[in-house]
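Everyone, study these two lines:
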Amino acid sequence: MRLWLALAASALLGATGTPAQAAWYEAKSKHFVIYADWNPKQLQTYANKLERFDQAVRWVMHYQDPPIGDGNRVTVFALSTIDAVQRMVDKRAGNFANIAGFYVPRAEGCLAFVPLVVSKEATGLDTNSVFFHEYTHHLQLENLDRPYPVWLVEGFATFMQTAEMQKDGSVLLGAAPEERAWGLLSADSLPLTSLLTEDHEKLTTAQWDMLYGEGWLLTHYLYATQSRSGQLTRYLDLLNSGTPRLDAARQAFGDLGQLQHDLTLYKHQSSLMGIKVGADHTQPGAIEIAPLSPGGSAVVLLRANLTLYGDKKDAAGPLAQQIRSIEARYPGDELVEATLAEAELDTGNAAAAEAAADRVLKLSPKSVDALIFKGAAIAERGRTLEGAERHQQFEQARGLFIAANKVDTEDPEPLYDFYKSYLLEGVRPNDNAIAAMHYASDLVPQDGGLRMNSAIAYLNENKLREARATLAPVAYSPHGGEAAEVARIMIAKIDAGDAKAALLALRRPAEPPTR
């Protein structure tokens, strides 16, 4: 499942293609790997900002901060302009001309594409808002184990997106979002009862704008008002217990007419207090910056395109041809060879993919990417064989996925590939493979397809509690579309104690989300 989560901005779309080669740098921090054609000082400042934001959100929300490996950091492609970002967008994705940045959650590594410069005068957004909003969703899904209504999911992300880095090292959260001002001040505001109960798939574009603005306001009010302390937690607990949305709101917030009145007064205050997170809670940690090699700089955007569109036949071939050309100029470059291995896999050239992966492993024997690509190439070869020879190839592939897992135990990709290798072979995954898949799902709950597979496995084992918790990030994803609807139906069946009916709900047609 691929989710495209974008924030709107007015800009012209540049022509599809790869920009002229520039000098690229890589920044590595605890939670991010950032590729940018910026100067190192700009990149250092940006990486520092992202880590401080991460720490501020975790502190406010009491989110845990477990150790993660290279494979489970968010990879950010920080490009120079909105045009450069939009060149990465598939024209078939819909109304892409208004995209200022996007985020793609995947077991192979979550990706974000953001511009260095956004015209705030034209859009009401800045570079930080584009990323902060979507990264807040990333953290929400990482920690979501119960129902979160859409007004809160979007209201909270909008609350966080205006984060301001202070000179003393602190972070200020909760400033009003300029691009949502119409939704806050419009006379045609969404009534509170509609905000709390509306089926958001049926909202018009104008109502969505109001939902973002008023979701921000209600979130801000409930967090900042002492007399309302504890009400939001009670509301979520009631929803989680199966209480209908309107009943949960009345039990948690009291008289909704009074809440509407209080919100109106709150909105018209001369100023609204934010939340200041002290510098001692927002330490960015170590950030390493290094230039990419000339070959790496030449191939980095093609690698990004490959991760986005390598599974599309009409895109994979031309991308692979360009990457082969670069490899001919920079043979033995580790990033180039790894990218070539992936490209050859995407175009069905298993032997060439394995050869490229072997060249990487000679340079870096513990390269997780190369171990995965070599394993995938061998598995592809195994699919063409029969009997014992077929099984031997898949066992060899699984050995490589295990080796990759030993290098980075917190990378979900080799875990999931290990599980999928049994399906490719046409045999039932063993208990170890199923456990690997469940752990991969826990590591990257943002990948809705992986999450659904994990939930199905739990249901087949009649583990209803685990299945319900696994479905929650899919069901309450802010842009989950039909998949989210199916997951919510499955949760309702689970709450009724009917695992079989929950599995039958999967027979509903579910398209990947597009909002």
Remarks:
- The first helix runs from residue 40 to 61.
- The CA atoms of residues 59 and 152 lie 18 Å apart.
